[in-house]
UniProtKB/TrEMBL annotation:
The lineage of its organism: Bacteria, Pseudomonadati, Bacteroidota, Flavobacteriia, Flavobacteriales. It is a multi-pass membrane protein. This is Exopolysaccharide biosynthesis polyprenyl glycosylphosphotransferase. It comes from Flavobacterium supellecticarium. It is found in: Membrane. InterPro entries: Bact_transf (IPR003362), EPS_sugar_tfrase (IPR017475).
């Protein structure tokens, strides 16, 4: 298993936010009088971000057209101008419409200039240096396939490197499909594009299963622009319609920010209010019973299959098989204090530091030790889908009876089903509900908590 790259750069968007905020705040001191006040800077910063999130101002992808960017700029400018006039007219005695217009227009012009500069720089960077690209293959033999093939070849600035076209039809043999899958793994393919009219339902299912289990992105070329499912998302590469198979709410920037803010706030609440005094107490009790560190550190797989160190209070005596074997009922490795903190889930509390570090979320699919992830990835259908989002301290599966030791295949299969449901139906209210149920189960006692 290899980790796939991000859907877009993780550095460009934060840089764009920061640069734009610097521009609009510096220009207030240059183009507006001092009587406007510092609170105006706070107001315009919050307003700018709020408008941008609602209109998708920073949602610029490798296939986005320049005219679409220009449209976003006009929307941002219009709304920013309206809110600037509203604040100044209501809170300030200063009333010079021409200077307000000059300020917002200048700020927007500079923001637009940098936005287009980054956009065209990335296009040029892909052509000249071959960087920031994604490896793709195409499956099918319809007219749409030829058009998409030409698009990828003639537009290297979009950052797609076409590795191969598989001319499949509905009568294609299983061996040839398997050779396609082998090619995708050997060449570390990022995205697979399939023509729906050239594949049977069973063949489509095979591609869905393969991409889900190997953390690849699957996209379809439709027969015509018909809505096949409410969860499917349409994009356009030039004038070619493309369907994205899986719609993940946490792919949206606004949802990411909301979840991250909640994670940080909730984690700080636990760290300051609980761990600040509980950690020294547990440290004494853990050390009194057995030698070894206070905290247990173990490699787990997180977002995009990336490994990270997951922290827990040590509940077992140091042993050589801690990274290989799950804890079972009446496990002799568990200490007396360890049995208590595992029963009450207190041993998981240090993972709130993992949340602050950005490796985990408060709620999400529970991460498995690396050896078990490799095993389940090979044997459990769609297991790898869980890695499209950050792992969590608790999750929907855990609140529905699938926590702790995996005793049968039924346990892990249902855990994956709950995790995928959570991934496709995330909301902040769902997170809050899962946290409540986790606390309730910890107080009530869970028979699988051992």
């Amino acid at each position: 298993m290899r980790r796939t790259t991000g859907r877009y750069s993780g550095y460009i968007r934060p840089f764009s936010y920061l640069l734009d905020l610097i521009i609009i705040n510096i220009l207030t001191g240059v183009l507006l009088p001092e009587t406007i006040g510092f609170y105006y800077n706070i107001f315009i910063s919050i307003t700018w971000i709020t408008i941008a999130l609602n209109i998708g101002f920073y949602e610029v992808y490798r296939y986005t057209k320049a005219i679409e960017i220009f449209g976003k700029i006009l929307k941002q400018y219009a709304l920013f101008l309206v809110f600037s006039f509203a604040y100044i007219g209501y809170f300030s005695k200063y009333s010079q419409p021409s200077e307000t217009i000059k300020y917002t227009t200048t700020a927007m012009a500079l923001v637009a200039a940098f936005k287009f500069a980054v956009f065209y720089f990335l296009k040029r960077f892909r052509v000249v240096f071959g960087g920031n690209f994604r490896r793709v293959i195409i499956v099918g033999q319809s007219k749409n396939i030829c058009q998409l093939q030409e698009f990828f070849i003639e537009n290297p600035d979009y950052g797609y490197k076409l590795e191969k076209v598989f001319h499949f039809d509905k009568n294609e043999s299983t061996e040839n499909i398997e050779s396609c899958f082998k090619f995708a793994l050997d060449r570390d393919i990022d995205e697979i594009y399939c023509s729906l009219q050239d594949l049977s339902n069973s063949q489509v299912s095979k591609f869905v299963d393969f991409t889900d289990n190997n953390l690849k992105l699957l996209k379809f070329l439709p027969d015509s622009k018909e809505i096949l499912s409410r969860n499917l998302v349409y994009d356009y590469y030039g004038y070619i319609p493309i369907i994205s198979m899986r719609n993940i709410p946490l792919d949206k920037p606004f949802n990411k920010i909301i979840k991250r803010v909640f994670d940080i706030f909730f984690s700080l609440l636990i760290i300051i209010g609980l761990l600040s005094w509980l950690t020294p107490l547990l440290a004494i009790l853990i050390k009194m019973e057995s030698r070894g560190p206070i905290f247990f550190k173990q490699k787990r797989n997180g977002l995009n299959y990336k490994e990270f160190n997951c922290y827990k209070f040590r509940s077992m005596r140091p042993n050589e098989i801690a990274d290989l074997e799950q804890v079972s009922k009446n496990d002799p490795r568990i200490t007396r204090i360890g049995r208590f903190i595992r029963k009450t889930s207190i041993d998981e509390l240090p993972q709130f530091f993992n949340v602050i570090l950005g490796d985990m979320s408060v709620v999400g699919p529970r991460p498995h030790m690396v050896s078990h992830t490799e095993m389940y990835a090979r044997s459990v259908d769609k297991f790898m889908v869980r890695h499209f989002i950050k792992p969590g301290i608790t999750g929907l599966a855990q609140t529905n009876g699938y926590r702790g030791e995996v005793e049968t295949n039924y346990d892990i299969i249902n855990r994956v089903k709950y995790d995928i449901f959570y991934l496709e139906n995330w909301s902040l209210l769902l997170d809050i509900k899962i946290i409540y149920l986790t606390v309730y189960n910890a107080i009530k006692g869970d028979e699988k908590a051992y």
